[in-house]
Amino acid sequence: MKARLKRQWIWVAAATVLAAAVMETRADEILIVPTTGTASHNVGARNGTKTIDGTELSTNAATGTTVPMSWPTAGNIADHTWVGASTAPTISWDLGALYVLSGFHLWNYNGSDSSGNRGIKTATVYASDDAVGAVTTNLGSMTFTAAPLTAGYTGEDYSLSVTTRYVRMVTTDVFPDNDGYTGLSEIRFVGTPVQPLGEVVKAVSATVSHSVGARTGTKTIDGTEMSTNPATGTPVPTTWASIEGSAYDGSWVGNSASPIITWDLGEAYLVGGFHLWNYNASDSAGNRGIKTATVHLSNDPTFATYTDSGSLTFAPAPLVLGYVGKTYSLPEPVKARYVRFNTTAVFPDNDGYTGLNEVLFIDVPPSGTVVILR
């Protein structure tokens, strides 16, 4: 029977290094207004949302009708900026979806309120596919231009190359005339939405070489580990946050350091990859997730013949709420009904048990374009 979910998968490409430079906007790129801005500290109502609400611009950025370079700040309306009472604050933005970013346009702090230049001089920039930031990519340090503290400021372009949903800046230096407060006026990102390249397939069964009690292989496909049950296919996979916490009976656990788990997809698909939520139970038992495994695919349930897709290395789960897992791709798509993981390594703090939370597979259309992740 078909186990295909209704919604298409969004592939995640690998992050690369960024540099400060003049940004060139391609014809297929769009202006991205983040859905949220969250700072480690705010002064009153001057919170991270002020960096994305357009109130500091002469044309509201939410419309996207004016190119970023022509949006002058409104000058001395300081309450329209984000301000934190720390010289090393952190600010994070949620873009609302995955994008291939080519850069951003930043309006540094430009409030002419006689309090000095509160703008960020340098910051380390991070990218992540989950709000928790359990797994981040350090994109390096960037140096920002000081705002003139006068009306008509149009900001500057900065370039980067990364596919991500969340961007974080950790302030590392401020300007000499800073008065102990740090802030920004506005920010906009530029990039292209990540296009769906396949459909999500939920396996119809999962069998393991060993399980502990009721924590069987079925736990990896039943959706009990998700904030939204994946059987419905309602949200896209990257929004299915793990809610394991201490209720660790929602995951599969085996008492061997090298267990085998096999999934039956119900019929043959052109399997291009999968999205994996590693073991995420915060039960003080260490990290029981799989670190490396060889992946075999077959149309024979006995695996008398199979395709060896080699070894894959999996990221550990953060062992906290809000875990969204990670996408992995095969070296090349394989037409198969059965997928098997042979565990070859576990994490150092493993307590003798091994497990997984959930897994969903990706069916690549034969005529589609396949992105290979490295």
Descriptive notes:
By secondary structure, the protein is an all-beta fold. It has two domains: 30-193, Jelly Rolls (Sandwich); 196-363, Jelly Rolls (Sandwich). Helix content is 0%, strand content 44%. It has strands at residues 4-10, 30-32, 36-39, 82-84, 90-108, 120-128, 136-143, 156-174, 182-193, 196-201, 205-208, 252-254, 260-278, 290-298, 307-313, 326-346, 354-363. The strands form two sheets. Strands 1, 10, 11, 12, 13, 14, 15, 16 and 17 form a nine-stranded antiparallel β-sheet that branches. Strands 2, 3, 4, 5, 6, 7, 8 and 9 form an eight-stranded antiparallel β-sheet that branches. Strand 14 (290-298) and strand 15 (307-313) form a beta hairpin. The model is unreliable at 1-26, 62-71, 231-240 and 368-374 (pLDDT under 50).
